[in-house]
């Protein structure tokens, strides 16, 4: 019988990698990247060793081209950021920004975030999780590929400290409704707002988001804390 393959929350669309992104990936990944070394509990990350300090830690999931992650890390040097993305152009772009901005508080993991959570991150090591504009998979038959599902949220909660938060943002209203439902059903979490939260200052507006707001498009932020 063929082995059952779990549905991925992403499709590996590599796209075009610019020369600058390729150079950054080749030159800087050894310095700022964390290799995923396998599906064994013996391979848990030692985050204090990786960052060479003990500090509040935040997981950035699916950071795209990295502008928001770099901006947040620059504004909050007292925090450490683990940035997870599978697409090489985005990884190269963030690495380039890390170097240009002189950021010492960002490390990049190029791997499926589900396996990172299952096999690499220690329990209760995170003060917060940022999931900004995840792929909405707009076609109904693809909704099962959406990242924000009950099992994934339960997995995230294993790695949150008490009082730690999950912050998701989306510009797709039906996905916002699904995320609100999923987060509300997780017994370990409580909403920090009535339904949707105002955008906190630490989440900068992206150019794409600003353009959408000018056109009257909505953006929904959801922030839930671990009890």
Automatic annotation (TrEMBL):
<feature type="binding site">
    <location>
        <position position="171"/>
    </location>
    <ligand>
        <name>substrate</name>
    </ligand>
</feature>
<dbReference type="InterPro" id="IPR055361">
    <property type="entry name" value="tRNA_methyltr_TrmB_bact"/>
</dbReference>
<feature type="binding site">
    <location>
        <position position="60"/>
    </location>
    <ligand>
        <name>S-adenosyl-L-methionine</name>
    </ligand>
</feature>
<protein>
    <recommendedName>
        <fullName>tRNA (guanine-N(7)-)-methyltransferase</fullName>
        <ecNumber>2.1.1.33</ecNumber>
    </recommendedName>
</protein>
<dbReference type="InterPro" id="IPR003358">
    <property type="entry name" value="tRNA_(Gua-N-7)_MeTrfase_Trmb"/>
</dbReference>
<dbReference type="GO" id="GO:0008176">
    <property type="term" value="F:tRNA (guanine(46)-N7)-methyltransferase activity"/>
</dbReference>
<dbReference type="InterPro" id="IPR029063">
    <property type="entry name" value="SAM-dependent_MTases_sf"/>
</dbReference>
<comment type="function">
    <text>Catalyzes the formation of N(7)-methylguanine at position 46 (m7G46) in tRNA.</text>
</comment>
<feature type="binding site">
    <location>
        <position position="135"/>
    </location>
    <ligand>
        <name>S-adenosyl-L-methionine</name>
    </ligand>
</feature>
<keyword id="KW-0489">Methyltransferase</keyword>
<keyword id="KW-0949">S-adenosyl-L-methionine</keyword>
<keyword id="KW-0819">tRNA processing</keyword>
<dbReference type="Pfam" id="PF02390">
    <property type="entry name" value="Methyltransf_4"/>
</dbReference>
<feature type="binding site">
    <location>
        <begin position="206"/>
        <end position="209"/>
    </location>
    <ligand>
        <name>substrate</name>
    </ligand>
</feature>
<feature type="binding site">
    <location>
        <position position="112"/>
    </location>
    <ligand>
        <name>S-adenosyl-L-methionine</name>
    </ligand>
</feature>
<feature type="binding site">
    <location>
        <position position="139"/>
    </location>
    <ligand>
        <name>substrate</name>
    </ligand>
</feature>
<dbReference type="GO" id="GO:0043527">
    <property type="term" value="C:tRNA methyltransferase complex"/>
</dbReference>
<feature type="binding site">
    <location>
        <position position="85"/>
    </location>
    <ligand>
        <name>S-adenosyl-L-methionine</name>
    </ligand>
</feature>
<comment type="similarity">
    <text>Belongs to the class I-like SAM-binding methyltransferase superfamily. TrmB family.</text>
</comment>
<comment type="pathway">
    <text>tRNA modification; N(7)-methylguanine-tRNA biosynthesis.</text>
</comment>
<keyword id="KW-0808">Transferase</keyword>
């Amino acid at each position: 019988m063929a082995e059952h393959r779990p549905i991925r929350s992403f499709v590996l669309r590599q796209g075009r990698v610019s020369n600058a992104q390729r150079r950054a990936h080749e030159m800087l990944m050894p310095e700022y990247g964390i290799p995923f070394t396998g599906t064994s509990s013996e391979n848990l990350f030692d985050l204090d060793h990786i960052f060479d300090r003990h500090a509040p830690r935040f997981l950035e999931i699916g950071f795209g081209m990295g502008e928001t992650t770099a901006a947040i890390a620059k504004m909050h040097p007292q925090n450490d950021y683990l940035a997870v993305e599978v697409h090489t152009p985005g990884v190269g772009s963030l690495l380039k920004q890390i170097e240009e901005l002189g950021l010492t508080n960002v490390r990049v993991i190029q791997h499926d975030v589900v396996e990172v959570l299952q096999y690499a991150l220690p329990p209760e090591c995170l003060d917060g999780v940022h999931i900004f504009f995840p792929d909405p998979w707009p076609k109904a038959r693809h909704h099962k590929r959406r990242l924000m599902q009950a099992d994934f949220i339960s997995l995230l909660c294993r790695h949150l400290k008490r009082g730690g938060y999950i912050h998701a943002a989306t510009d797709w209203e039906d996905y916002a409704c699904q995320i609100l439902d999923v987060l509300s059903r997780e017994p370990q979490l409580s909403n920090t707002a009535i339904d949707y939260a105002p955008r906190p200052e630490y989440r900068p507006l992206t150019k794409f988001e600003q353009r959408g707001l000018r056109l009257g498009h909505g953006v929904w932020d959801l922030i839930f804390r671990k009890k």
